[in-house]
Specification:
The protein is α/β, with parallel strands linked by helices. Helices cover 43% and strands 12% of the residues. The model has no long low-confidence stretch (mean pLDDT 96).
Length: 473
């Protein structure tokens, strides 16, 4: 298939297939039901020597791959946080693949670089970040958090570790709540700081970091000759969407001159709603902020928005310009490969641009408010049922709850029952939920945030949960 005409023919078929897929997406089991190893076993040991016809390749996609897919775009996908796609996003992704551009530097793709700069300014305004912040698109929040921790490491040592490696004997210390995402611990490992130097701070009854515990931990470390370098605060933890008290944490970070990174991977999208701006109080004292349009802003995976107050520190941490990359670029344009880890970069700004323009801020706000209202309804059904209980405040569109029949109070028994309940509902293939542990309690999580989710999907999910709970108790 090497002519534009044969491509046109195949592409039309695939676009039709995609439209049919979305039209009939509820026919597929939400969670893949395939056996571990079954897809691998179906793929030949060796690659084909002769070219194969697209018809055959596509046939195998349908018969071998599709049955092994979990359908994240199914409106009854309630697990984890979503990885939301939308049609405008898909269209832009097609164009981005078609251009096949590698957007490492301004010169290698001027429009991609300048559009990225422009849409990051749009996003900054949409979520209400202060003027000074500058944005860059990263693949994921994990990468953005790693960039933040590396920047904090370098800033605190006058960029010496970049040159000499670790020589200073004082161990660096990083802080986050015990409910923070695992990507913080991963970043601490990668940055050479060592996971034993990640201090996990206790939380209050709503799973929010306790600022007084943070200050005590910092003081203790200083007394012991250790060096506090960075605090990661979460706006919307992964377990229960708890919002750490940013203002109080920010004051402590300023007092001890510690980098403050804000991880708002999922809940950051809610900042486009004025009624959620309270979360941002104190943000002007933060050094960096990340949220994922690929979670709750209808921009298909991957697309993470990373903002920094001082882009010079970020660039000084990462910049490296070997001879073969030197260009005569004007001073005032950005080379985003110096704003992060990877050299080569995809054209991700295009899909954000398509999404924001196609929905409009108003359309995006409506969609989020609808999700939040649906989650609120689900929460009220759970509260009204005598055998279920809410496990954490539901501030956004995630509801944490568990089955708790009146005659059972033993934690272990409840944990096992809820684990069985999760398996039972997911096995039906009609919905997919996930879990977490809050304290010692196995907790079910329903994230009502899929692009296409409607009230009927939430109602069906709740009815099924109640039905299955009866059968396991
Ligand atoms: C999902 C999530 C992450 C990780 O996001 P990736 O983009 O997959 O790396 C980090 N932090 C929080 C709070 C999250 O919910």
């Amino acid at each position: 298939m090497d002519s534009p005409e044969s491509f046109r023919k195949e592409a039309h078929k695939i676009v039709d297939w995609i439209a049919d897929y979305y039209a009939g997406i509820e026919k597929y089991p939400v969670k893949a039901a395939c056996k571990p190893g079954s897809v691998f076993a179906a793929i030949p040991d060796s690659p084909p020597f002769e070219p194969e016809r697209m018809e055959n390749i596509f046939g195998d996609f349908e018969s071998l791959i599709m049955p092994g897919m979990t359908h994240w775009q199914n409106p009854s996908f309630f697990a984890y946080f979503p990885a939301n796609a939308s049609f405008p996003s898909l269209l832009a992704e097609m164009l981005s693949s078609a251009l096949g551009a590698q957007c490492m530097k301004w010169e290698t793709s001027p429009a991609a670089t300048e559009l990225e700069e422009a849409v990051m300014i749009w996003l900054k305004k949409m979520v209400g970040l202060p003027e000074g912040f500058e944005g860059v698109i990263q693949d994921t929040a994990s990468t953005a958090t790693l960039c933040a921790i590396l920047s904090a490491r370098e800033k605190s040592t006058d960029f010496r570790i970049n040159y000499d490696g670790f020589r200073n004997p004082a161990a660096m210390r990083i802080y986050c709540s015990s409910e923070a995402h695992s990507s913080v611990e991963k970043a601490v490992k990668i940055a050479g700081i060592g996971r034993n130097n990640l201090v996990k701070i206790g939380y209050d009854d709503a799973y929010r970091m306790k600022p007084e515990f943070l200050e005590a931990a910092i003081l203790k470390d200083i007394k012991n000759g250790l060096k506090p370098v960075c605090v990661v605060a979460a706006l919307g933890t992964t377990g229960s969407t708890a919002v750490d008290p940013l203002e109080d944490i920010a004051v402590i970070c300023q007092k001890y001159k510690v980098w403050l990174h804000v991880d708002a991977a999922y809940a950051g999208s809610a900042l486009i709603l004025p009624e959620y701006r309270w979360m941002l109080a104190g943000i002007e004292k933060a050094d960096s902020f990340v949220f994922n349009p690929h979670k709750w802003l209808f921009t298909n995976f991957d697309c993470s928005a990373y903002f920094v107050k001082d882009s010079e520190t970020l660039i000084n941490t990462f910049k490296l310009v070997p001879e073969y990359l030197k260009t005569q670029i004007p001073e005032h344009v950005n080379d985003y490969s110096n704003w992060g880890i990877q050299l080569g970069r995809r054209f991700r700004a295009l899909k954000l641009w398509f999404v924001i323009r196609s929905f409009g801020l108003n359309g995006l706000q409506e969609k989020l408010r609808n999700h939040i209202a649906l989650a609120g309804e689900l929460k009220s059904w759970i509260e009204e049922h005598p055998d279920f209980e809410i496990m954490a405040p539901a501030l956004f569109s995630l509801v944490c709850f568990r089955f708790h029949p009146l005659d059972t109070d033993d934690t272990e028994t409840l944990n096992r029952m809820n684990e069985r309940l999760l398996l039972a509902v997911n096995e039906t293939g009609t919905m997919y939920i996930s879990h977490t542990k809050l304290g010692e309690s196995y907790t079910l999580r329903i994230s009502v945030s899929q692009t296409m989710v409607e009230k009927k999907h939430v109602k069906n999910a709740w009815d099924l949960i109640v039905e299955k709970a009866l059968s396991i108790s």
